[in-house]
Amino acid sequence: MSGYVGVLVSDPSLQNQFTQVELRSLKTHVYLKLHAHASARIGSPAKNSSAFLKAATTTLLHTISEPEKASYVAHINNYLAQDGFLSKYLPIDASSNDLFEIVKDGVLLCKLINVAVPGTIDERAINTKRVLNPWERNENHTLCLNSAKAIGCTVVNIGTQDFIEGRRHLVLGLISQIIKIQLLADLNLKKTPQLVELVDDSKDVEELMSLPPEKILLRWMNFQLKKSPYKKTVTNFSTDVKDAEAYAHLLNVLAPEHSNPSTLAVKVPLQRAKLVLEHADRMGCKRYLTAKDIVDGSPNLNLAFVAHIFQHRNGLSTETKQISFLETLPDDAQVSREERAFRFWLNSLGNSTYIDNVFEDLRNGWILLETLDKVSPGIVNWKIANKPPIKLPFKKVENCNQVIKIGKQVKFSLVNIAGNDIVQGNKKLILAYLWQLMRCNILQLLKNLRFHSHGKEITDVDILRWANTKVSSSGSQSRMDSFKDKSLSDGIFFLELLSAVQPRSVNWSLVTKGVTDEQKKMNATYIISIARKLGCSIFLLPEDITEVNQKMILTLTASIMYWFLKQPVEEKPSATSDSENGSQLETISNSTIDDSASESSIE
Predict the structure, then answer these.
(1) Is 485 exposed, middle or buried (0-12, 13-18, 19+ CB in 10 A)?
(2) Strands 58-59 and 7-8
(3) Which 3 state secondary structure label does DSSP give 260?
């Protein structure tokens, strides 16, 4: 990420409670106010508050990489050149700061996300008038940030105002992540089954599937280099490729017809790098870097360069016997979707480590402990926790045992689950735990809105009844009987719910009848984008709505409820008064709970 720095708060318990805009607005003499503000937000005194008082808060210099900016601008100019709305702004001059002006309306970033992961944002939800008012720009940036989180970007401490102000290091940081996701999209066995050529047996295939895309790219590069006289192993996209020698051999293997004998003969790395890029040009590979970027060891640009070579010509066989291994591996689309949702949710919380695979990266228990502490501050006994790197297996078991103990403490359904199940990577049990953790998080957020809940526990039935009451109060006859109600597949109920909480949010002329599968998917995509545009942080896919995935339907409804209830009274876009909402929740919380409305425990 390019120069991704800002205001650094020394106390980690406070770090994720504020956006960069909020942090920059604070001065030295208001440290105590910051601490009090954080305590109010999380509902309890911040952990290690004395450390916050003793240590200074430091403002770091915001820097950006001009070569990276030029590369990202070239990427945008190439992939968005045909976009009807952006055509009047493109091509962007890389030598200017026009990029940071263009992103201020939010449209370009939303479009770039759709280039990286097509279909993430329903473009019907993007505000694309010629002149946008501040409210509409803010909606676009809210949609962008929530959608970026939903494809795996880390946007902790970044707010919409940062983009409206054109904060250069934050803009480039997000663009860098989006482009990286796009370039690495094919580095998995689902998109490129030929990658099994890199391994010898089915056990190695499973290991390959658990690797992050960057590691797979390195393994592919070294696999191809073994076909050349090059004897070194490339372990990074910086120092190991600075002399351009590995690149020269790689391109000779992949495209020998375009090779230049003098490339390896030259002694000066800069000159060799220039010849490598000429070779890449003859192959038809777009440049993401200059010869100087290679010898300078720019990790982001070198990664982009190699990823693009892989996309253009990976040199893998289409007829390899190893592909038969894939037929023996379980292909559970539901497990894959849930793993994806939980992984992106965990990454959105700003934990210390980025998660590429929940079944592998959670096995030492540390990230789960961090997440539990965010969901319920102070619940983790950090004195007995073992911080990574953890080499001894029993230390991992100790962490995971505490994870299970805390889960039972907050009344998770954990029958026959032990800490060692997490250490062993038991997929079913890990998903069961993560679902209950995600559900606990949203219920805790709702409970913390004490003005509405009066500090009482919020249940699944409370959420169900709230949603039905909101839709009914808007004059609609729609309702859902439970979070697995098959009638929800057409999306109409959720569109009416979104319209009830924010009347201007839904353009009904764009809504289909939801009869055919295609119509249902169009409505589902629109629902997700509208909810994110309002400010809901959700991680479901359109299929979760059309197939009525009970878990994801609950999180969607709860997220809409949370967004609505936390709006200031004067901004509530509904005729229902705040006091009425409070009494409504009180009545619900005092009512008899019918657990059949939602089967929240995992069997």
Answers:
(1) middle
(2) antiparallel
(3) coil
- Pull the structure tokens for residue 444: 């805790």
Give which of 106, 18, 109, 25 is closest to 59, Cα–Cα: 25
Alpha carbon distance 541, 553 (integer Å): 10
Q: Angle at the Cα of 469 (from 467 to 470), degrees rounded to 5?
A: 65
Q: Give the CB-side neighbour count of residue 217, counting CA atoms within 13 A.
A: 23
Say which residues have a Cβ less than 8 Å from residue 204's Cβ, sequence separation at least 6: none
The DSSP bridge partners found for residue 8 are 58
For 101-139, the pLDDT digits (tens) are 999 999 999 999 999 999 999 999 999 988 899 999 999
Nearest to 312 by CA among 276, 282, 272: 282
Contact yes or no for 400/419 (Cβ under 8 A) = yes
Q: Coil, strand or helix: which one is 298? A: coil
Are 211 and 361 contacting, i.e. CB atoms less than 8 angstroms apart?
no
Residue 43, pLDDT score: 47
User: Can you tell me the distance from the alpha carbon of 238 to that of 478, in angstroms, rounded to the nearest whole number?
Assistant: 57
Does the bond joining 212 to the residue before it have cis omega, within 30 degrees of 0? no
Kindly report the pTM of this predicted structure: 0.84
Residue 301 CA: distances (Å) to CA of 1, 125, 403: 10, 32, 39
Ramachandran sector of residue 466 (left: φ over 0; alpha: ψ -120 to 50; beta: rest): alpha
Look up residue 8 and give its DSSP letter.
Answer: E
**Do the Cβ atoms of 506 and 530 come closer than 8 Å?**
yes
156 three-state secondary structure: coil
- Looking from the CA of 197 toward its CB, the CA atoms found within 13 Å total 16
Q: Count how many residues are written for the chain.
A: 603
Nearest of 559, 546, 550, 583 to residue 469 by alpha carbon: 583
Written in H, E and C, the secondary structure of 326-361 is HHHCCCCHHHHHHHHHHHHHHHHCCCCCCCCCHHHH
Q: What was the pLDDT predicted at 319? A: 63
Average pLDDT (196-225) is: 88
Averaged pLDDT, 237-252 = 96
